[in-house]
């Protein structure tokens, strides 16, 4: 297996999302990157990888994902997401467009809806 240059990846992601100068609160070129990566616990690794018995396509922790939920009778009929979630995503899309185009110069990559 190869190795990953985690510091380089972190810096590139910072710059890609727009943190590229101190005036924005973070500069991906000069920020301090702290690495704290540890080897996966052997019990978890055995369950995930099947100690060599699983096909590569069957590997994975199986517990990773994003979940949200609450009771509502309002939802978007196309995505089936709660309407408030759908609208928040749409707002974020417009905010991102305005930030990338420079139309709203003070927006930052972490702006929220």
**Could you list the spans in which at least 5 consecutive residues all have pLDDT below 50?**
none
Instruction: Characterize the overall form.
Output: flat
Strand order across the largest sheet: 1-2
DSSP strand content:
under 5%
**Which structural category fits the helices and strands?**
mainly alpha
Order of helices and strands: HEEHH
What is the typical, i.e. mean, pLDDT?
A: 84
What gyration radius follows from the Cα positions, in whole Å?
20 Å
Number of E-state strands: 2
- How far apart are the first and last residues' alpha carbons, in Å? 41 Å
Quaternary state reads: single chain
Which percent range fits the helix content? 25-40%
**How is the main sheet built?**
2 strands, antiparallel
Number of helices: 3
Report on the architecture of this protein:
- This protein is mainly alpha-helical.
- 35% of the residues lie in helices and 4% in strands.
- It contains three helices and two strands, in the order H-E-E-H-H.
- The protein has helices at 6-17, 42-49, 83-101; strands at 20-21, 26-27.
- The chain has a two-stranded antiparallel sheet with strand order 1-2.
- The radius of gyration is 20 Å and the shape is flat.
- 1% of the residues are buried.
């Amino acid at each position: 297996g190869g190795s990953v240059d985690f510091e380089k990846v972190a810096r590139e992601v910072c710059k890609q999302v727009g943190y590229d100068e101190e005036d924005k609160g973070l500069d991906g070129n000069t920020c301090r990157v702290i690495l704290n990566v540890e080897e996966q616990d052997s019990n978890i690794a055995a369950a995930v990888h099947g100690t060599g018995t699983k096909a590569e396509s069957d590997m994975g922790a199986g517990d990773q994902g994003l979940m949200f939920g609450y009771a509502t009778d309002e939802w978007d009929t196309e995505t089936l997401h709660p309407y408030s979630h759908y609208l928040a995503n749409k707002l974020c899309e417009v905010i991102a467009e305005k930030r990338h185009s420079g139309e709203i110069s003070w927006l930052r990559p972490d702006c929220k809806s």
